[in-house]
Amino acid sequence: MTLDPGSLHYDLDLLEEIEKATMRLVVQAIYDFRDEAKEIFLQEQDLVADIGEDLTREALDRMGTSIIPVRLFGKIDYKRARYVFHPGYSVRQALFVDSKAEKISGAGTATIQTAQTSMIIRQVRGGQAIEEQGSIPTVAPVQGLELLTTTVFVKYNYRSVPGAKNQLVSVSIVCLPNGMLQDRYNATTEDAFWLAGRNAPSRGEAFRVRISLPRLKAKARWRVQGIYLTQTPPYSWDQ
After folding, report:
1. What is the residue range of 167's domain?
2. Is 127 within the bounds of a domain?
3. In a domain, 98, yes or no
4. Of 59, 85, 204, 207, which has the highest C-beta tally within 10 A?
5. CB 229 within 8 A of CB 38
6. Distances (CA, A) of 134 to 60, 113, 220, 231
7. How far is the C-alpha of 102 from the C-alpha of 125, rounded, in Å?
8. Angle at CA 63, nearest 5°, toward 21 and 222?
9. How many domains are there within the chain?
């Protein structure tokens, strides 16, 4: 009745279908919450990163989803073990949604840690080919269950306005491929959608990397969606 997540190694098209359905869920939740998010961002005095975490959590909690009663761990803001239902199958999923907030000038990238992906990060950095293995498993064993891991990033792009307030301009939502899709999206260091992260190895800082949203979108348009708070209409699904 329920798919073995490990079997998706042999059906990558189905894996992409599951990730696309998950992306639609997250995008819809953020879209439905956009007006409240805009007002909260303008009025709240917390750090913008904390505001983003709260907005994503509230939007997804309001949307609701099927829940598997097990606890997930990891350096991700929002974590849910849940079922994905489809007329032809169901699958257990570990849904990880992390929030970012950055001024609009940085809207084209999203910074992540290796603890936030199951992919091998293959890229050229400083003229050297590097490979860094993400530490999230492609399939997570949790309390006797096997859960497909899916990672989505919600990035709040804002500008500062007079009065020391921040105006939410847009929200970029990014579905990072599961590591089983490695060869489709990042087979070699030259074929990468990664950019160097803002970490300094000389100071012992942990490895970070940035997702280039335009590069990932060029590989699969649906994996990067944008909700615009200052345009009408504010959003349409980009296939």
Report:
1. 5-228
2. yes
3. yes
4. 59
5. yes
6. 25, 8, 21, 36
7. 23
8. 30
9. 1
